[in-house]
Amino acid sequence: PKNALTKQYHKLFGLDGVNLEFEDKAVQAVAGKAKELKTGARGLRSILEEVMLDIMFDIPDDKTIEKVIVNERCIKEKTPPTIIRKKAG
What pTM value is reported for the model? Predict the structure, then answer.
């Protein structure tokens, strides 16, 4: 959809020059967790915010971050997203 949450996060991260990638299984895990919690579409934002909040605060202060990858483990096990840093030089 036009206002998809993933697109909103892509835009936010893009403002800081960071590429954001959601693996397909991560998106499916978010939907599954919302269904499991019986929160439906309204719960999607809170599930994603739980995963994204820390990294969103780190990005403006860390100019070495080039890319952030959200995978299934980030959603199911609450592990931090994978951070790809710019090569020095």
Answer: 0.90
